[in-house]
Amino acid sequence: MKMANPKIKSLHEQVAADLIERLKKGTAPWQKPWNDSSATLEFPYNAITGKRYKGINIFSLLSADRADPRWMTFKQAAAMDWQVRKGEKARLVQYVKTQDLIPKLDDKGKKILDENGKPIKISVPLDHAIVTAAWVFNAEQVDGIPPMAKETALARDWDPILRAEELVSLTEAKLFHNMGNRAFYNLHTDSITMPLKEQFSGAGLYYGTLLHELAHWTGHNSRLDRSLFNKFGTEAYAREELRAEIASMLIGQELKIGHDPGQHAAYVKSWIQLLTDHPFEIHAAAADAEKILNYLLTFERKLEIKQSNANEIKPEQAIPELKKIGLFIGDEIPYEDNIFKVTGLLKKGRFRMEELNSGRFFALTKNDELYRSLINCKQQLQQTRIKDSKPDLEPVKEDISVPVPKR
Predict the structure, then answer these.
(1) Which residues does residue 135 pair with via DSSP β-bridges, in sequence order?
(2) d(Cα 313, Cα 319) in Å, to the nearest integer?
(3) What confidence category does residue 397 fall into, taking pLDDT thresholds of 50, 70 and 90?
(4) Closest CA relative to residue 12, chosen from 281, 311, 300, 200
(5) Contact at 8 Å (CB) between 364 and 353?
(6) What is the DSSP letter of 156?
(7) What is the mean pLDDT of residues 114-137?
(8) If we measure between CA atoms, which residue out of 154, 164, 233 comes closest to residue 200?
(9) Cα Rg for the chain, rounded, in angstroms?
(10) 152-187 burial by CB neighbour count: b if 16+ within 10 A, else e?
(11) What pLDDT score does 209 carry?
């Protein structure tokens, strides 16, 4: 098994160099148009957890030009009895750790133990972020892995255009239309101006353009607070456009409405210069684009929470069998303006969790208050789906035999 030497160049230098060449050829990921009916762009994701790789890792893995979007570590493949072929080279991905787990203490400074006599851990922020590296292989480099099941439009439980329309509505962004041919966000009026819908050849192109401007809208100081007072042609202007364009690509893939880079070709030269002078900018831009995506999707999550609270189960209405409910891999549960995803199981009955708003990972035990809160929220969500008096309350159990690798 051969691996590239990580000491040659840092990840952001490798990715920046690759993107510069692709920008010159017009083949950077966000330069490729696609639509919801011919959705060819699939972002790389972990074959075991199903979790999409984020930030700069997207571009690191897309640069391998693999048709299969599934990736995994050598240990993950071995745990599934899959075999990485001899001589295959791994790709580098990085993770930024901003939280650490420490024992929970009582008022006297003593460790609080769980029912098994083990210390209860809590997540705390680190003084300095820690960057860790991992090496992953593509499914095309692995023998024994089943063929990938292709997603179809019929398999989705939402209409991409309706979902985009609802998302824009939920933001309550000020939106104006005119007969012009420009789409732009005005920082002074905190508003978006768009051409008329009928001026676009399709609804997907209209909403793709609108969501790009909505990405700029998130930069207002009352939202994500990015620097937006930038003159056209400046380096700062190129930085913001790079963030909005990557975010537009992420949103288009999330909503399955497609992505049209045509209107932003004028920025290519400035992006090439930006990445040449500041290779780390691709790391920062990709991270900010993920923040933009999460910020916008938070509006959907808040709606889910509101609908869930409206259907809250009163104690006297609770169905006894619902108390048997638990957490399972893949669960996504909205709670307190956030959404928590169960990404795996750890030793001693703990759960590996992801806070989707921030991308933070942490371990959860059944003694934690958050565990009980998530169970209550899951009960409420399940109750809203009950259509008869005796629903099937037995949760579908997933295969949890695969160990979760340490990040």
Answers:
(1) 92
(2) 9
(3) very low
(4) 281
(5) yes
(6) -
(7) 88
(8) 164
(9) 23
(10) eeeeeeeebbebbbebbeebebebeeeeeeebebee
(11) 93
Give the relative orientation of helices 281-310 and 160-171 as an angle to the nearest 10 degrees: 90
Confidence grade of residue 95 (pLDDT, cut at 50, 70, 90): confident
Measure Cα distances from 194 to 174, 179, 250, 251 in Å: 11, 9, 21, 18
Average pLDDT over residues 140-157: 76
DSSP at 137:
E
Q: Phi and psi of 173, rounded to 5°?
A: -65, 140
Backbone angles phi, psi at 73, to 5 degrees: -80, 165
- Is 0.90 surpassed by the pTM of this model? no
Q: Does residue 31 carry a pLDDT above 80?
A: yes
Report the C-alpha gap between 49 and 331 in whole angstroms: 12
pLDDT in tens, 169-211: 999 999 999 999 999 999 999 999 999 999 998 898 999 999 9
Q: How far apart are CA 169 and CA 217, in angstroms?
A: 14
What is the CB neighbour count within 10 angstroms for residue 198? 8
Of 72, 68, 74, the closest CA to residue 86 belongs to 74
The whole-number pLDDT of residue 324 equals 53
At 195, which helix (H) or strand (E)?
A: strand 191-195
Distances (CA, A) of 270 to 16, 240, 283, 290, 299: 14, 11, 17, 22, 32
pLDDT of residue 35: 62
